[in-house]
Amino acid sequence: TLPARVRIVEVSPRDGLQNESTILPVETKVALIELLAKAGVRDIEAGSFVSAKRAPQMAATAEVLAKLDQKLLSRSSVRLSVLIPNLQGLDCALASGVKDVAVFAAASETFSQKNINCSIAESLARFAPAVEKALSAGIRVRGYISCVLGCPYEGEIAPGEVASLARDLTAMGCHEISLGDTIGAGTPLRAKRLIEAVARDGPIDRLAVHFHDTYGQALANIFACLELGISVVDASVAGLGGCPYAPGATGNVATEDVVYMLDGMGVETGIDLAALAEAGEFISGRLGRRSGSRASRAIAAQ
Ligand code: HMG
Ligand code: MG
């Protein structure tokens, strides 16, 4: 059985743009987030507070947050979040006024080193004080795990490794764990086995799935996970996305395609597909390329 309702976590302003080499103006990012809010997207990852050398596109995150139309966001009940790797990132997040942050670990040692320049254990030690400070300030913390279905450097990753890391992040205080198929290597039965392994340790509604679509498996993987009771899905309009430290990986699953699939199955998202597709067309235009969403292209061709 499928969930009656799915919460979409829109990651285009962060995952979608972090890998884009052309730095977009702050106004464009603000317009994207506001279009998403108008389309009914409630959870939006607006940017990240990481080293500007590592992700130059994210360097203006504080300016983006400061310029957003707060009235529109509160009227639309939007929750904004930002990605943070350490206490320094959390302090920027606190200063910006967001109520949600996300820390990001990896299930692969090599990926952890390439992405955040430390081991998995060191990353947990860095997150702990940031998570503690966030929670005491009333900020919710999400925990990402990358490479859950494969690593660009180490290949296969055992589901047990992912489950163990999910336990650590949950014990630290993360209210939700987003399982990231960073390189889009997963297929539906492996995705299911992974969810089953991680769900043994606690309620399934604290788990989210985050599929990149490198091999065209993302929608099939999402459907497989929904069948197990997953009801939080990360996605990015126009299928934008990628991680600078996952060479060859393409974008996230396109939000328009996910919403089209869920609409067709009677699963509620609260999102208006036509308005969402406009947001995707807007950002694709600003990046000078065709939308990576098949649903959006179909809508545009009608
Ligand atoms: P480090 O390389 O170990 O070095 O940084 P450091 O700690 O000595 O810091 C280097 C510089 O960064 C210093 O500045 C720090 O002040 C600064 P400098 O003295 O050279 O001028 N710095 C910061 N600046 C702003 N905000 C901060 C911050 N912390 C330090 N919070 C660090 C470690 C983690 C900071 C670095 O490696 C980094 O920023 N990495 C970026 C990683 C990243 O953004 N990756 C993409 C997101 S993860 C992802 O896409 C996967 C996901 O989508 C799920 C999936 O698909 O699997 C979430
Ligand atoms: Mg990602």
TrEMBL record:
GO MF terms on file? hydroxymethylglutaryl-CoA lyase activity; metal ion binding
Q: Which reaction(s) are listed as its catalytic activity?
A: (3S)-3-hydroxy-3-methylglutaryl-CoA = acetoacetate + acetyl-CoA
List the residue ranges forming a coiled coil, or say none.
Answer: none
Q: Return one Gene Ontology term, BP aspect.
A: ketone body biosynthetic process
UniProt pathway annotation? Metabolic intermediate metabolism; (S)-3-hydroxy-3-methylglutaryl-CoA degradation; acetoacetate from (S)-3-hydroxy-3-methylglutaryl-CoA: step 1/1
Q: Which CDD domains match?
A: DRE_TIM_HMGL (cd07938)
What residues does the Pyruvate carboxyltransferase domain cover? 6-277
What does the UniProt keyword field contain? Lyase, Metal-binding
Q: Which Pfam families would you find in this protein's record?
A: HMGL-like (PF00682)
Reported EC number(s) for this entry are 4.1.3.4
- Similarity remark: Belongs to the HMG-CoA lyase family.
* Protein name, as recorded: hydroxymethylglutaryl-CoA lyase
